[in-house]
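Priority: medium. Attachment 1 of 2:
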């Protein structure tokens, strides 16, 4: 590669946003505020309009004791992990679990979804 082309490439790479930025859980915490109306994060937080998210990752959808799930979610077979949580907010509950009680909420930005997932993974871990 010629020196001029290499210099241009280095300038472009140094000014471009990082393609593999680490998720920002603090930003995810800010995003979670909209979810906090319906969900708690702690084992003693209880259920609200939605179930507690405590111990969410690895849990089968519809498995929190004492929460009355819609048949659509309870029978979905979803196991919550980074991909399924991100997908829920990418396509929306109406598309991922049609007939569930969760109101339509999407997060268009992949970076924002990653930030929310990172926050939830840390905040809901036993």
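Attachment 2 of 2:
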């Amino acid at each position: 590669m010629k020196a001029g082309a290499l210099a241009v490439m280095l300038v472009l790479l140094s000014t471009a946003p990082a393609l593999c930025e680490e998720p920002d859980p603090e930003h995810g915490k800010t995003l979670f505020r909209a979810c906090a109306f319906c969900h708690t994060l702690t084992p003693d937080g209880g259920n609200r309009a939605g179930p507690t998210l405590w111990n969410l990752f690895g849990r089968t959808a519809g498995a929190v004791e004492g929460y009355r799930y819609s048949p659509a979610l309870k029978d979905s077979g979803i196991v919550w992990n980074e991909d399924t949580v991100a997908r829920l907010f990418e396509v929306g509950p109406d598309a991922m679990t049609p007939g569930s009680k969760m109101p339509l909420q999407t997060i268009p930005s992949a970076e924002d979804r990653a930030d929310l997932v990172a926050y939830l993974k840390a905040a809901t871990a036993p």
